[in-house]
């Protein structure tokens, strides 16, 4: 996994152009086409990095009382059980965390492909604004919270991700 700092030009209302530093995380990945409109991305990441690229969409009511979000509150007892397991001598989490990314995430082909799969690298922006993360954790919020809180220096996990700007599609996959 690599983290790089990229410089992007931004033009404020004045004639000056300034440079902003923006970090990105690059991970080896496999892209898989499903159906006519869906691409899934599978990769490994240090579980301690999950919360730098993804957040939780909490269920609630928005304006006009419409339903927003889809995740219930964290269950602290369940998180504690997982955390204790992660801190044990020989833990294993074989199930992938599912993340819905927005369109700022980019896939770059790097190798051979088959009829349905392409190897490559996923470029994930790491925003300085904590409310502008490119991903939403669709499945695995308790595991990701336990990874965040565990007294371990790192713990690699699998992620399966897809790109969408639709909260309806995120809720469907949840």
Given helix and strand content, the structural type is alpha+beta
Give the fraction of residues assigned to helices.
10-25%
**Secondary structure: number of strands:** 11
Query: Counting H and I runs of at least 4 residues, what is the number of helices?
Result: 4
Mean pLDDT: 79
Strand content: 35-45%
Largest sheet: 9 strands, mixed
Query: End-to-end span in angstroms?
Result: 27 Å
Order of helices and strands: EEEHEEEHEEEEHEH
Q: Give the C-alpha Rg.
A: 18 Å
Shape: globular
Uncertain stretches: 1-21
Structure summarized in a few sentences:
The protein is an alpha+beta fold.
Structural overview:
By secondary structure, the chain is of the alpha+beta class. It has helices at residues 50-53, 76-86, 141-149, 167-173, and strands at 2-10, 18-34, 38-46, 54-55, 60-61, 67-68, 97-101, 106-113, 117-126, 135-139, 156-163. Helix content is 18%, strand content 44%. Strands 1, 2, 3, 4, 7, 8, 9, 10 and 11 form a nine-stranded mixed β-sheet that branches. α2 (76-86) crosses α3. It is globular. The two termini are 27 Å apart. The model is unreliable at 1-21 (pLDDT under 50).
């Amino acid at each position: 996994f690599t983290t790089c700092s990229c410089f992007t030009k931004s033009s404020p209302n004045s004639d000056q152009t300034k440079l902003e530093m923006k970090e990105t995380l690059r991970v080896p990945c496999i892209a898989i086409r499903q159906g006519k409109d869906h691409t899934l991305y599978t990769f490994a990441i240090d579980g301690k990095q999950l919360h730098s690229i993804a957040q939780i969409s909490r269920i609630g009511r928005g304006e006009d009382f419409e339903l927003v979000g889809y995740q219930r509150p964290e269950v602290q007892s369940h998180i504690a059980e997982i955390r204790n397991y992660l801190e044990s001598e020989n833990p294993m989490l074989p199930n992938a965390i599912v993340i819905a990314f927005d369109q700022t995430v980019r896939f770059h082909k790097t190798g051979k492909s088959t009829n349905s799969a392409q190897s490559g690298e996923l470029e994930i922006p790491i925003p300085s604004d904590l409310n502008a993360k490119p991903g939403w954790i669709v499945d695995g919020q308790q595991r990701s919270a336990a990874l965040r809180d565990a007294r371990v220096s790192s713990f690699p996990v699998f992620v399966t991700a897809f790109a969408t700007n639709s909260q309806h599609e995120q809720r469907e996959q949840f």
